[in-house]
Amino acid sequence: MAREQRRALLELLQRPGNAQCADCGAPDPDWASYTLGVFICLSCSGIHRNIPQVSKVKSVRLDTWEEPQVEFMALHGNDAARAAYESQVPSFHYRPTFSDCHLLREQWIRAKYERQEFTNPERQEPYSAGYREGFLWKRGRDNGQFLSRKFVLTEREGALKYFNRNDAKEPKAIMKIEHLNATFQPAKIGHPHGLQITYLRDNSTRNIFTYHEDGKEMVHWFNALRAARFHYLQVAFPGASDTDLVPKLTRNYLKEGYMEKTGPKGPASGQPAGPWHTDPQQTEGFRKRWFTMDDRRLMYFKDPLDAFARGEVFIGSRESGYTVLDRLPPSTQGHHWPHGITIVTPERRFLLACETESEQRAWLDAFRKVVDRPMLPQEYAVEAHFKHKP
Questions:
Q1: Helix intervals (H) in 25-160
Q2: Which domains are present in the chain?
Q3: Which strand (E) or helix (H) includes residue 245?
Q4: pLDDT digits (tens, 9 = 90+) for 110-156
Q5: Whole-number Å distance between alpha carbons of 388 and 169
Q6: For residues 335 and 286, is the Cβ–Cβ distance under 8 A?
Q7: What's the pTM value of the predicted model, to 2 decimals?
Q8: Which among 19, 88, 192, 230 is most buried, taking Cβ atoms within 10 Å?
Q9: Is the Cβ–Cβ distance between 206 and 198 less than 8 Å?
Q10: Is 234 exposed, middle or buried (0-12, 13-18, 19+ CB in 10 A)?
Q11: How far is CA 376 from CA 21, 64, 176, 231, in A?
């Protein structure tokens, strides 16, 4: 009898929609919630276990199934659950994948099944109202300590602000929605709810590192920022569809990690980045630095949690004279790491070195994705600004 139930479940997995996890899209799910009627992956099953009042899970292959439970799964399935529990997901709301952090996946699952936010739009008010204020822990630029700071997001003013004191009348910083990005960085920040917010100041990137003890609150802030970006872009590009706009709301970095670089030291700590020059007749030694590839901006930092980059370089397209080589010039000296990369721009070369071959391949893949992508009209203006930095 048990063998028949298992065979029936395996057949259900072949139905359309059931071959991917109902919550994160991971392929070949081998767990299921027999109270919700969905097939899920091992990782998401652990989150479901934490909401037993809503979801009870079993392994498709290892656990014993009763016939009524199998029949329930047959009557439901992933597509039916998606139609029921995701019927009113706002276009701007982030839909996590299996590569996203635990917090995003957990809060997506809780929002769907426990809080039922996407069948009751009034429960979306915390991130869809166009205004949000509250306190986040923010890392100090100079001392590295996290202190509680008041943040205010206002779509009407098109800005996110934070204040150094509760009674302060003027904000410490005003971040325009137009140039704002947010990405979860739990490992870098050292907190499972860590959110990195970036914005442009004088066309240089500024980083702010935050977290909230309550994971739901942090994800609500994230989606509120996405909502503000979405509504800004709808006005800026009135003819664009939601499908065109949603990928522009927030972005994860293409690649981050340590490499060695040669060139000048860059500005003093706490100062915005200037241009990153490399002498073609390289004589200066290599230094280990933290690099971030953010769309077409390659930035380097002395420390991953620096507020400002020490230097930035724009990486354009192949048609505009940019190439990436998997080696250093033969005369290069002073690098400790053996796996070289040369970025060639119309003006100069940038010399980098990776510790391992796998890291070199990963960086080359990231650089080549950018170089192989044609530039958009607005990106030519960004490129021109980089060329004319003093």
A1: 42-49, 67-75, 78-85, 102-109, 125-128
A2: 1-86 (1.10.220.150), 125-248 (2.30.29.30), 255-263+284-388 (2.30.29.30)
A3: helix 242-245
A4: 999 999 999 999 999 999 999 999 999 999 988 889 999 999 999 99
A5: 36
A6: yes
A7: 0.90
A8: 230
A9: yes
A10: middle
A11: 35, 56, 22, 21
